[in-house]
Amino acid sequence: WPSVFSALTILSNRETVYHSDRGAYRQWYDIVSSFGSYWPQQFSVPQLGIDLHYRPGSVVPFCGKVFQHGVPKCKGGRICLAYYMKKSIHE
After folding, report:
1. What is the distance between the alpha carbons of residues 42 and 60, in angstroms, rounded to a whole number?
2. Is CATH 2.60.120.1520 the classification given to domain 7-90?
3. Which of 3, 41, 68, 69 is at a distance of 20 to 30 A from 52, taking alpha carbons?
4. Which range is the signal sequence, renumbered to this chain (predicted)?
5. What pLDDT, on a 0 to 100 scale, did the predictor assign at position 82?
6. What radius of gyration do the chain's Cα atoms show?
7. Is 88 left (phi over 0), alpha (psi -120 to 50) or beta?
8. Which of 37-41, 45-49, 55-59, 64-68 is predicted with the least confidence, judged by mean pLDDT?
9. Could you state, in order of their start, the residue ranges of all structural domains in the chain?
10. End-to-end C-alpha distance for the chain, whole angstroms
11. What is the DSSP-derived secondary structure letter of residue 19?
């Protein structure tokens, strides 16, 4: 299906250590959404001191190039869809 994003990553039951997205562009937002049946998690943005409740069905827009972010390992089954733009594709 058509999308404004140039890339999609599908993650399954994966811990994501704090990182920033090197290939992204500062002015663009990413969208991360989660699905499944898992215990509520936290989506953390340590630079802002934010821990969001990351429940199934959550959608989080943010700038992954600017802000480090991460999600701990979960109990249960979690699928994460990470939509983002790659700067190199649009240059």
Report:
1. 11
2. yes
3. 3
4. none
5. 94
6. 13
7. alpha
8. 37-41
9. 7-90
10. 23
11. E
pLDDT in tens, 62-80: 999 999 999 998 889 999 9
Q: DSSP strand E in 1-91: where?
A: 7-12, 16-19, 30-38, 41-45, 50-54, 59-62, 69-71, 76-84
> CA-to-CA distance for 24 and 54, rounded, in angstroms?
23
Positive/negative CA dihedral, 59, 30, 41, 35: positive
Contact by Cβ (8 Å): 82, 16: no
The answer for residues whose C-beta is within 8 angstroms of residue 19's C-beta and 6 or more apart is 68, 69, 70
User: Residue 81 and residue 59: Cα distance in Å, rounded?
Assistant: 9
State the Cα angle at 30 between 24 and 36, rounded to 5°. 130
pLDDT at 91 over 70: no
So what's the pLDDT on residue 4? 86
